[in-house]
Design a protein that fits this description.
57% of the residues lie in helices and 8% in strands. The longest helix has 29 residues, at 2-30. It has one domain (44-200). The chain has 208 residues and is mainly alpha-helical. The radius of gyration is 22 Å and the shape is globular. It has eight helices and three strands, in the order αααβββααααα. α4 packs parallel to α6 (127-148) and α6 (127-148) packs antiparallel against α7. The protein has a three-stranded antiparallel beta sheet. It has helices spanning 2-30, 44-47, 50-56, 91-98, 104-124, 127-148, 151-165, 172-183; strands at residues 58-66, 69-74, 77-78.
Length: 208
């Protein structure tokens, strides 16, 4: 009888522990933003973006972009429709074609879905996707710097982007087009404003 009692007690303890163990994660998952897909640490520079992205970005679980990462949507902008990986050009070439003439509002929404995807990739430890996202994210950061008229920041981002692009099969024509864009004034016909969106409030330390 003592063995049976011990087994019953062990089974009871297991059931209690199982109920507690499974109840807590479910409750926590309900409060986790949809762009956080894994349990990897997210750096502070991205953590500060999350409260703002939660307000503007939703996830479409019916379309998976990369393993367990869903499509990111900000209003009328879907990542799956502006995925730089689908065209047979470099990431810089895609950015020059698709992101250089966006209105401020469209640029913000595009940056939001790309930043949300960066957070998703970071949370899952998807280094391959993170590396691929560097160039388009830097390109959009450059556009916001041009909007703000910060010449030192523009040059800093330019240099960083060109350094990253060395492994991106950038063509000579793309390099020349990019250089012309960096030093050209913003066109009046595009609805740019001086204030950049929230996710670009962080400013680099000015060079001496």
């Amino acid at each position: 009888m003592s063995n049976i009692k011990m087994l019953l007690q062990a089974a009871t303890c297991f059931l209690l522990l199982s109920t507690t163990a499974f109840a807590v994660p479910i409750e926590k998952r309900e409060n986790i933003p949809c762009m956080i897909r894994g349990d990897r640490d997210i750096p502070e520079r991205l953590q500060t973006d999350i409260p703002f992205l939660v307000e503007s970005v939703t996830c479409d679980e019916n379309i998976m972009l990369d393993h367990d990462i869903p499509d990111m949507i900000s209003h009328d902008v879907r990542f799956s429709e502006i995925d730089f990986r689908v065209e047979k050009v470099s990431a810089l070439g895609y950015s020059l074609t698709h992101f250089s003439k966006l209105s401020n509002d469209q640029l913000k929404k595009t940056a939001d879905v790309y930043r949300a995807l960066e957070i998703a990739a970071t949370s899952t430890g998807n280094e391959r996707l993170l590396d691929a996202l560097k160039i388009p994210l830097l390109f959009m950061e450059l556009q916001f710097a041009r909007i703000g008229g910060n010449n030192l920041e523009i040059i800093g981002i330019r240099d960083k982007l060109l350094k990253v692009s060395t492994s991106d099969h950038m063509t000579i024509q793309e390099r020349e087009k990019f250089e012309r864009l960096v030093y050209s004034p913003l066109r009046d016909e595009f609805d740019f404003v001086v204030q950049a969106p929230h996710i670009h409030h962080r400013r680099r330390r000015r060079l001496a």
